[in-house]
Amino acid sequence: MVQRNTEAIEYALKEARDNDVKFIRLWFTDILGNIKGFAVTVEELETVLTRGMGFDGSAIEGYARSDEKDLYALPDPNTFNILPWRPKTNAVAKMFCDIVTPDNEPFQGDPRTVLQKNLEIAAAMGYTYYVSPELEYFYFQSSSSTTGLDSSGYFDQSSNSQGTDLRRETVLTLEELGIPVESSHHEAAPSQHEIDLRHTDALTMADSVMTYKLVVKEIAMQHGFYASFMPKPVAEITGNGMHTHMSLFEGDKNVFYEEHDEAHLSQTARHFSAGLMKHAREITLVTNQWVNSYKRLVPSYEAPTYVTWSDVNRSDLIRIPSFMPGREMSRRIEYRAPDPACNPYLAFSVMLAAGLEGIKNKYKLPKASGRNVNDMSSEERYSRGIEPLPSNLYEAIQITEGSELVRKALGDNVFQSFIENKKIEWNRFSSEISRYEIERYLPLL
After folding, report:
1. Kind of pairing, strands 91-100 and 21-29?
2. Considering 187, 258, 282, 339, which one is annotated as catalytic?
3. Which of 184, 190, 288, 419 has an alpha carbon within 20 to 30 A of 240's alpha carbon?
């Protein structure tokens, strides 16, 4: 049974009254990470907070077959926020929802429920899972153009850049929504930006990632531009990543930190990293779920292509950031494969599941790559047991379809729906005639 805290419900009701809220948007995601929802009026809020609001589950991608229609969106009152870009009179608020069945049981096809189940597994082992993703995106002139707003590069400072102003407004809006921002900057490619969110527990962060993506797009749209989290919208420049920093805590103790280790990295952190490496190929379909995702995972663009780790090379799959004395709480690992177009609830779930598997089975972390793996010969990579990440969506589907770890992490319902959806996407992509084919073959054949 899904239950809500009475104090949290009272808080949401008071906030609505005190801020002249008229409409409340109830948000949730489909299996692909698209934000869905509907609005209720404030007069319905108390009832919705305790009983949920019914909707047709078969209308949502991957949720339910036509004979399993009735589902309920039960808002999480802890996620209540006023939307700053809406009018202050008859204001609009939002809440993220858990999806429940008519019996008030968690719906197994809900990505938020999937993440909660994996977090419960971690909690049973004594851990709280903290994450901090770095989400990159582009500003373009429109949704049908890849013409950017600037020609700047990594960390460039420009006071008259439209993109800089958009990023500033986005940071301020996120903070109004109660989402702490650690830093923001221009990224490596022209018109590419990054806003880094302060680390927190994975469920709060997944909700924040969904809000972040919506806010970035909303602010850009208000100024007549388009923001895109597409992994690789332009072939010749760096794509968008979502490098994810992770750590496990036992209460207030960061269990990835070890005082007496030379690198100040605990055995738990090493086992967790080894689990990620062992299962990296299996989870890539979830962390990189689109045909376009694999155009980013290519050499020479600071994206990983092989299952390796290092403390220096930014092309490795896992990077162990250098330790700074006095910052024991920030000891972490960075997993660099995911892109920001993934479903964060599912991506955090499979990364956690892989890491916990490494801890349970005490997987041994292999030697660090030591140098750029792309400069090694295929024979050297083979002799060192270095495996490549999937090179396209089809290969990723084939690998993940046989993964018991991913099936267990997502549950049969989401696993089967996700695989089927990705097969449909690949088949559609494979049957398309691309511009390259027309330009290359039409004059020749």
Report:
1. parallel
2. 187
3. 419
* Per-residue pLDDT, 160: 63
**Euclidean distance between the first and final Cα of the chain, in Å?**
64
Residue that the structure tokens 């960390």 belong to: 155
Could you tell me if 121 and 98 lie in one domain? no
Indicate if the pLDDT at residue 445 is higher than 60: yes
In terms of domains, do 44 and 177 share one? no
Residues 349, 409: one domain?
Answer: yes
C-alpha–C-alpha distance, residues 323 and 318, integer Å: 15
334 given a catalytic annotation: yes
Question: With 0-12 CB in 10 A as exposed, 13-18 as middle and 19+ as buried, what is 260?
Answer: exposed
207 is catalytic: no
User: Which of the following is catalytic: 258, 336, 339, 357?
Assistant: 336
pLDDT digits (tens, 9 = 90+) for 95-139: 999 999 988 899 999 999 999 999 999 999 999 999 999 999 999
Higher pLDDT, 364 or 383: 364
Torsion, CA 127, CA 114, CA 212, CA 27, rounded to 10: -130
Count of domains for the chain: 2
The pLDDT, as a whole number, for residue 371 is 77
